[in-house]
Write a structure and sequence with these properties.
The complex is a heterodimer of chains A (359) and B (112). Chain A has 359 residues and is α/β, with parallel strands linked by helices. Helices cover 36% and strands 9% of the residues of chain A. Chain A is built from 15 helices and eight strands. An eight-stranded mixed beta sheet of chain A has the order 6-5-4-3-2-1-7-8. In chain A, a hairpin with a 5-residue loop joins strand 7 and strand 8. The N and C termini of chain B lie far apart (61 Å). Classes of the chains: A alpha/beta (359), B mainly alpha (112). At the A-B interface, helix 10 of A face helix 3 of B.
């Protein structure tokens, strides 16, 4: 029984042939039950109360590219359902199409994510080429353990430094138990070592231009609290216990999709969690949700309003749906596709890949 | 609809409704309550732990539900939470036992 549970934890929903591996099944769950019987308002009804429906882009600032779902970790709450068993990887041809877009975009931020983006065989080539364009903020979302996973990744801190890449990494807690519970056994110790190695080349140090930020997302069925307070606690604990420094902490709400949705249902927390999200709805956060200034590109070149919509296979509502036919002007003139998962980005101080969205 | 139980977890969500039957007092209470839990000389995290300990000594299921969740949200570990509960328990048992001195005084007076 225990062995079975452990094995399950090491596989993606796709590998397990879980119902929830199918995007439509997730969307069905999010639209039925408490949202169909009127107990809770749908997201469109809610934003309509403050005349914010339909949600519209306010100009592109961030291009987020998901270079593949393969990952060396199988985190309990992964919204990508990433893992070693996922084979979806962006090809060099699609990367070349992305580069053409990066050269001509008005966006100031390029954000590479995955899976573990470093596992894409063309990752280094892509970073080298993209960094030549001179985009203002070039982010790689690194899970940290990849740096320690294999000899061929050991030089990543130097590589990132050479290309002045901004590193953003997940860390659900400053203690081993809570981190390993969510991200897998041994992840905490390896993450700590990786952070120390990043510090050693200058990342995250006070006044250093080599940006190192951490992402905090709760380890269970609850919402994150005040980002500034959490940052203070993280900084104090990581410095005292491991002599680690970093710049900012971004508090991100877990969205009820994919493996986190699976966890919510299995632990009988789904309804309470959705109530918490709806109760914490903040209309001010709607103004700054990331889908209003972001385009998310999938491994196979399709375009989405955000990484979450990508995982739910909700493509942009535009005649332009693929990187090969990219046209920013036409894309900026679209309605954003929404469902009940969007409550995750408007709860409390709001949530985005760059943390909270309100003061 | 009437519940079969004195305590229903769903009732916690209705806490705010007490204002409907006494608007001024309800509003004043929630304003005070909100103010108390803001960051002050104590951090909101410290306040959550105090509230958690008191929730246990008061044996209030709603409060235990609310402040366990609040503590988790503030990054409090389960070891910290259990220590806080022990602080409450120590005060409760200490408060019982310290009355033993009263009993001893009485015995000494009556039968010393």
């Amino acid at each position: 029984m225990l062995k079975e549970k452990k094995k399950k934890k090491q596989q993606s929903l796709h590998k397990r042939n879980s119902d929830l591996a199918v995007a439509n099944k997730q969307l069905e769950k999010l639209s039925n039950g408490i949202f169909a019987n009127g107990e809770l308002p749908t997201f469109s009804e809610k934003i309509n109360e403050t005349n914010q429906f339909p949600l519209r882009p306010k100009g592109l600032e961030i291009l987020q590219i998901n270079v593949g779902y393969m990952c060396n970790q199988v985190c309990e709450h992964c919204h990508v359902d990433a893992g070693p068993d996922r084979k979806e990887i962006m090809t060099r041809e699609t990367m070349e199409q992305c580069l053409d877009v990066i050269k001509n975009t008005g966006a100031h931020t390029l954000d590479l994510t995955g899976g573990a983006p470093e596992m894409n065989p063309n990752f280094r080539w892509f970073v080298e080429e993209a960094s030549k364009v001179g985009i203002k903020d070039f982010i790689v979302r690194s899970n940290l353990t990849i740096i320690r996973a294999n000899k061929k990744y050991h030089d990543l801190p130097e590589f990132f430094k050479k290309h002045n890449v901004h590193i953003i990494s997940s860390m659900p807690h400053w203690t081993r138990g809570k981190t390993d519970k969510q991200r897998g056994e041994g992840v905490f110790d390896q993450s700590i070592k990786a952070l120390q190695e990043l510090n050693a080349v200058g990342y995250g140090m006070p006044n250093s231009e080599l940006r190192l930020d951490l992402v905090y997302n709760p380890s269970g069925a609850f919402l994150p609290s005040n980002q500034a307070s959490m940052e203070k606690d993280f900084k104090k604990a990581l410095l005292e216990d491991f002599n680690i420094q970093f710049h900012n902490l971004f508090a991100i709400t877990n969205l009820p999709i994919s493996r986190f949705l699976d966890y919510l249902i299995a632990s009988d927390n789904y309804e309470d969690y959705m109530y918490s999200l709806v109760d914490a709805y903040n209309p001010a956060a709607v103004k700054n949700v990331m889908c209003r200034n972001t385009i998310s590109i999938s491994w196979d070149g399709f375009l989405y309003d955000c990484d979450f919509n990508q995982m739910l296979e909700l493509k942009v509502a535009s005649k332009i749906q693929h990187i090969s036919e990219y046209n920013e002007e036409i894309l900026n003139n679209r309605n954003i596709v929404i469902s009940q998962h969007c409550y995750g980005c408007t709860a409390g101080a709001g949530s985005s890949c760059q943390g909270t969205v309100t003061e | 609809m009437a519940s079969d139980n004195y305590y229903d977890p769903k009732d916690l969500r209705k806490f705010g409704k007490i204002t409907e039957w006494s608007e001024e007092l309800g509003e004043k209470f929630f304003e005070y309550y909100g103010k108390v839990f803001e960051e002050g000389a104590l951090t909101a995290r410290e306040k959550a732990l105090i509230a958690l300990a008191v929730a246990h000594t008061e044996q209030c299921p709603y409060c235990i539900d609310a402040y366990t969740k609040d503590s988790l949200q503030r990054g409090v570990t389960k070891e910290e939470m259990m220590e806080a509960v022990h602080v409450g328990a120590a005060i409760k048992s200490g408060a019982t036992l310290v009355h033993g001195v009263m009993m001893m005084n009485k015995v000494n007076k009556l039968d010393g």
